């Protein structure tokens, strides 16, 4: 960590917070404070420079046009790439995930370059939009409980040779390639299609980011009964036949 307080950066709330993904910043902040950590939350609008000394960066989903604007501005700014070079933890959702890859299809139907921080390429799915509840098993190396979330995307994300799938779907489409993968990561840069917001439904992911930022293997326990009730409700509803 850069100094005594954890620097939590919420990237472009004006463009990429369409689906309540700002909840992720609230949950990471709260779970850090519950462990007695001092948190400096930095919300960076798209007309402001991205600070490069953050510990954790969060990026949400968005509609196709704001997604293109966000990608253009992030490329021009360069701060997120410098933060990644500094070893920052970056967690992105849906449109944000596609932006962190090499390219995606924008609202004009053109190939839009991303930041190349995750070795993935997103294309536009020809079939039905991927919409619905998702259950997925997270990469076992993280030792985390099952992931639950809600997906809503047209893009299909293909993993390159160096990206690892973040999870494997039990229910839902995930990356949409039909290979059962959901999300991807390279080193400390993560992407997922899970809205919900994902941290509210999966506080284990907020804790994963905190552990990586603090470089520790475990955090003090918290009372997670509310989270568990919500997770169990979503798991049982996602498992019902449509
Ligand atoms: N516009 C992108 C897509 O449809 C991302 C959507 C989202 O962030 N939910 O694939």
UniProtKB/TrEMBL annotation:
<dbReference type="GO" id="GO:0008360">
    <property type="term" value="P:regulation of cell shape"/>
</dbReference>
<dbReference type="GO" id="GO:0009236">
    <property type="term" value="P:cobalamin biosynthetic process"/>
</dbReference>
<comment type="function">
    <text>The lipid II isoglutaminyl synthase complex catalyzes the formation of alpha-D-isoglutamine in the cell wall lipid II stem peptide. The GatD subunit catalyzes the hydrolysis of glutamine to glutamate and ammonia. The resulting ammonia molecule is channeled to the active site of MurT.</text>
</comment>
<feature type="active site" description="Nucleophile">
    <location>
        <position position="94"/>
    </location>
</feature>
<dbReference type="GO" id="GO:0004359">
    <property type="term" value="F:glutaminase activity"/>
</dbReference>
<dbReference type="InterPro" id="IPR029062">
    <property type="entry name" value="Class_I_gatase-like"/>
</dbReference>
<feature type="domain" description="CobB/CobQ-like glutamine amidotransferase">
    <location>
        <begin position="9"/>
        <end position="202"/>
    </location>
</feature>
<feature type="active site">
    <location>
        <position position="195"/>
    </location>
</feature>
<feature type="binding site">
    <location>
        <position position="129"/>
    </location>
    <ligand>
        <name>substrate</name>
    </ligand>
</feature>
<keyword id="KW-0808">Transferase</keyword>
<dbReference type="InterPro" id="IPR033949">
    <property type="entry name" value="CobQ_GATase1"/>
</dbReference>
<dbReference type="GO" id="GO:0071555">
    <property type="term" value="P:cell wall organization"/>
</dbReference>
<keyword id="KW-0436">Ligase</keyword>
<keyword id="KW-0315">Glutamine amidotransferase</keyword>
<keyword id="KW-0378">Hydrolase</keyword>
<keyword id="KW-0961">Cell wall biogenesis/degradation</keyword>
<keyword id="KW-0573">Peptidoglycan synthesis</keyword>
<keyword id="KW-0133">Cell shape</keyword>
<dbReference type="InterPro" id="IPR043702">
    <property type="entry name" value="Lipid_II_synth_GatD"/>
</dbReference>
<dbReference type="GO" id="GO:0009252">
    <property type="term" value="P:peptidoglycan biosynthetic process"/>
</dbReference>
<comment type="pathway">
    <text>Cell wall biogenesis; peptidoglycan biosynthesis.</text>
</comment>
<dbReference type="GO" id="GO:0016740">
    <property type="term" value="F:transferase activity"/>
</dbReference>
<comment type="similarity">
    <text>Belongs to the CobB/CobQ family. GatD subfamily.</text>
</comment>
<protein>
    <recommendedName>
        <fullName>Lipid II isoglutaminyl synthase (glutamine-hydrolyzing) subunit GatD</fullName>
        <ecNumber>6.3.5.13</ecNumber>
        <ecNumber>3.5.1.2</ecNumber>
    </recommendedName>
</protein>
<dbReference type="GO" id="GO:0140282">
    <property type="term" value="F:carbon-nitrogen ligase activity on lipid II"/>
</dbReference>
<dbReference type="Pfam" id="PF07685">
    <property type="entry name" value="GATase_3"/>
</dbReference>
<dbReference type="InterPro" id="IPR011698">
    <property type="entry name" value="GATase_3"/>
</dbReference>
<comment type="subunit">
    <text>Forms a heterodimer with MurT.</text>
</comment>
């Amino acid at each position: 960590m850069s100094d005594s307080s954890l620097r939590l950066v919420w990237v472009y709330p004006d463009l990429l917070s369409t689906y309540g993904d700002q909840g992720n910043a609230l949950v990471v902040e709260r779970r850090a404070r519950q462990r007695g950590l001092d948190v400096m939350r930095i919300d960076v609008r798209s007309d402001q420079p991205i600070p490069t000394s953050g510990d954790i960066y969060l990026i949400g989903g968005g509609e196709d046009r704001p997604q293109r604007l966000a990608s253009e501005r992030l490329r021009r700014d360069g701060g997120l790439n410098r933060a990644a070079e500094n070893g920052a933890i970056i967690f992105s959702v849906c449109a944000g995930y596609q932006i962190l890859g090499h390219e995606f299809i924008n609202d004009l139907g053109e190939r839009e370059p991303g930041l190349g921080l995750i070795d993935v390429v997103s294309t536009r799915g020809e079939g039905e939009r991927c919409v619905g509840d998702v259950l997925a098993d997270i990469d076992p190396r993280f030792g985390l409980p099952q992931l639950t979330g809600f997906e809503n995307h047209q893009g299909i994300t293909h993993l390159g040779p160096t990206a690892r799938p973040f999870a494997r779907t039990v229910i839902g489409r995930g990356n949409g390639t039909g290979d059962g993968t959901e999300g991807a990561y390279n080193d400390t840069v993560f992407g997922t299609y899970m809205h919900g917001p994902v941290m509210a439904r999966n506080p284990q992911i907020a804790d994963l980011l905190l552990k990586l930022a603090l470089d520790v293997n475990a955090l003090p326990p918290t009372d997670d009964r509310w989270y568990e009730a919500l997770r169990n409700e979503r798991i049982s509803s996602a498992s019902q036949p449509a």
